[in-house]
Structures are given as structure tokens and as C-alpha cells.
Amino acid sequence: MKSVLQTNHFPENMHLLVFVGLLFLVSQAGGRLAKAANVPSMIGFLVSGIIFGPSVLGIFPENIIAEDLNIITEIALALIAFSIGGSLRIAELKSLKWAILIITFLQAFAASALVFILMSFLLPVVITTNEVTGGYVHGYLPIALVIGAISAATAPAAIMSIVREYRARGPFTSVLLGVIALDDALTVMFFGFAISMGKSLVGGEAISLYNAFIYPLRTIFFEMALGAIIGFAAGKAMAFFHSRDILLGFIVGTIFLTSGLAISFGLSPILSTMMLGFVLLNLVEQEKVAEIFSVLENIESPIFGIFFALAGAHLQLDAVVKASWLILILTSGRFAGKLLGTALGARITSAPQHVKRYLGIALLPAAGVTIGLMLEANAMYYSVHPKLCETMVSAVVGATLINELLTPFLVRYSLFHAGEAQRE
To answer: What is the pLDDT of residues 324-339, one digit of tens each?
Structure first.
């Protein structure tokens, strides 16, 4: 896609490290400007990516963003997921476990159901019947199922970035992190069910119980088992590491190993590295755990910066314009489902007042898992329903990126009003 402001991209024959270096510099500059304007640093990271990405200045070519820099996204997600798992202490979660479980399910289900209903009615309006083979049941319905399923996801990276930036800690933050830790697993299950039903509808086959329920559950079990096994082994080995410098190399290597093995086996690196952090937090002695997360904090900020700058660089302005009103309805439906489900879950479980008031708005960010599952569905259905898939990609990517620009303010608001965030 041509840049909006220029037709000549930055020379693509430059070494990849040139683009990596520029990405670090522009993201940190954007983060600093955002803090000066008293907004979350993540907004600055995202905006810097949009400005220097293919849609505006074109400093970062589209193929570099989409392919060559993918390893940075995988590294960032591994560190983020590890940090989330490393924030879930069993002793702190015991009194909140039912609230976390029920709220997680209800907010995910409500968001999925509401978006599915909206898309079921709206997709035939956006794409006419003569452009879709198979009619409503074999054409529109499978895509509506997919969009509904992936709408359950909440972005752990966005929330973790705000939690880290404002050093939030307390019961509200524990519930928030507990919900987002389980939310991705639940989204994967919803997606497995949607894909199974969709394949059956498209092919006119019977729905498979194995593909709809057993396979997603088995996959989640293997993902968590991988992280738990490596976490147990790393926890025992940590007794031999005393120097902070050596500890940093050991823990980063363990995180990358876990993530890489998960990807190699076709599993989710997010759940595996999340489980790794959870096991280490609750297995290793507290002084050593504190040291682990202390050394990681030194590298988290720049990693967060380039991760969100890359997310911003993926924005395609023409796709957003094309599906603008569908993006608005998709975003509104997901927000309404998250807020209603969270409010109902908090009421059923008699959660603390600040959880009832502020948790819903803290669960609105959506990013990595949403985009990943959408691309997987696109690969499966594009040959059969190209028009519907193009609409799905435009709507989901546009809604996700616009969402990422708006929701950090809401996450920050919830943490401060729950009394668990600190101003620098």
C-alpha cells in the first residue's frame, strides 16, 4: 500500500537492524511525548508506529512490518505473558477465585454472543447475497461465528503495560490480571467451537464434537503443561544462579525457550509463558522471585515500546475507511458485552465494590490474540468467501487498532479509581 504522504519508501535494502534501531528510537520518543502530555506511554508508542508506518510516512515498508519484524512481536508477547503469570500469586487469588472464574466466563460469553448477533444481521447488509456463495447459512453465518468468538479476547499486553507503568497492586489488580489470564484460554475454546461449526456449515457436514470441544481443551492442556514443566525445572535450577546478571540471561532464555517450543509444536506461546511465570512465582522463594521481576523490569519498557509501535504500523487507513461504520458497531457491541457480562458476574459473586464499578472498563482492550485468530480464520475461509473475509479482516483490524488508541485511558482510570495505581 502506498504511503498517504509520499510515494517513495525508506530504502528497503537497508539491513534489518536499521529498522529495529529506528523502531526503538521512534517508539521511545513517542512514549516520552505521551508522558509529557500526561497520557499513557502506550498511546505514544502506537501513534509513533502509525506515523512512521506504511500508511503515513512509509519509513517502515509494509513487507518489513508484516514479515521481517514478526520476531519482535513474538519476543514481546512472551515477556508480557510471563509477567502476567508472574503476577498471580495463589495466596492472593484464593479468596477471589470464584469471582475471577465467573466474571471471566460471563464477560467473554456476553461479548461473543452480542457481536455474533450483530454480525449475523449486518453482514448481509454490507455484502450483498449475489457476492456470497452458499447463502446465509453457508456464507454469512460462519464468518459471524468467527467474529463473535474472537471478540471475547482481551489484550494482556495493553493492560500489563498500564499496570507496569503505574505500578498498580492490590485486590482489584489481582482480579484484573486473573481475568485476562483466563480470558485468552476461553477465547481459544470459543474459536475452536466457531471454526468447527463454520467448517461444518460451509461444507454441509455434521458438527464434530471432537473439533468443537475436545481438541481446543486438549490444546490448552498441552500449552499449560509445557509452561508448568519448564517452570518447575527452571525453579529447581535457579538455586544455582546468584548473580543478577546471570539470572537475567537465565530467565530470558527460559522465557524464549518456552515460547519457541510452543510455537514449534503449534501451541499458543501466550498460555505457555503465562504458566511459566505462574509456576515460578509460586514455586521459587520470594526473595529470588522479587529479583527475577526486578531484573526483567529493566528491559520491559523498550520491549513494550516496539511492540505497540509495530501494532500501530500495521494500521491500513484505507481498510479503516472502507469498513468504518461496521468497525463502530463491532466495537460498540464488544464493549457492551464486556461491560454487561462483567457487571453481572461481579453482582453474582458479590465482588468488592471497586471491582463492580471499574473492572468492566479495564477489560476493553483487544489486540494480539484477536488479530492472530482472525488471520487463522481468514486463511481457512478466504478461498470460499473472499468478499466476506476481506470485510472481516478490515473490520477486526480497524476495530482492534482504534480500540488500542482509546482503551488505555479507561484502564488507567479504573486503576486510579480503584486506589491501586501510583503517580510517578
So the answer is: 778 888 888 999 999 9
Residue 209 or 103, more confident? 103
- Quote the cell numbers at residue 136: 446465509
> What is the distance of C-alpha 304 from the center of its chain?
13
Nine-digit cell string for 115: 457481536
Any alpha helices (H) in 86-170, and if so which ranges? 90-93, 97-126, 135, 141-150, 156-165
Place of cell 508484516: 66
CB 152 within 8 A of CB 111: yes
- Asked if residue 417 lies in contact with residue 354, where contact means CB atoms within 8 angstroms, the answer is yes
What's the pTM?
A: 0.69
Answer whether residue 27 is part of any domain: no
Contact 152, 183 (CB under 8 A): yes
Give the model confidence (pLDDT) of 48-78 as tens digits: 888 887 777 777 777 777 667 777 777 877 8
Domain that residue 124 falls in: 74-311+325-417
Q: What is the CATH number of the domain that holds 330?
A: 1.20.1530.20
Select from 227, 193, 225, 182 the least CA-distant residue to 369.
Answer: 182
Average pLDDT of span 170-182: 82
Residue 107 lies in a domain: yes
46 domain-assigned: no
Q: How many domains does the chain have?
A: 1
Cα gap 46→26, rounded to integer Å = 10
Could you tell me if residue 378 is inside a domain?
Answer: yes
What is the C-alpha end-to-end distance of the chain, expressed in Å?
41
Counting every residue, how long is the chain?
424
What's at 347, amino acid-wise? R
Please give the distance of CA 135 from its chain centroid, rounded to a whole number: 33
Q: Once rounded to an integer, what is the mean pLDDT over residues 332-356?
A: 89
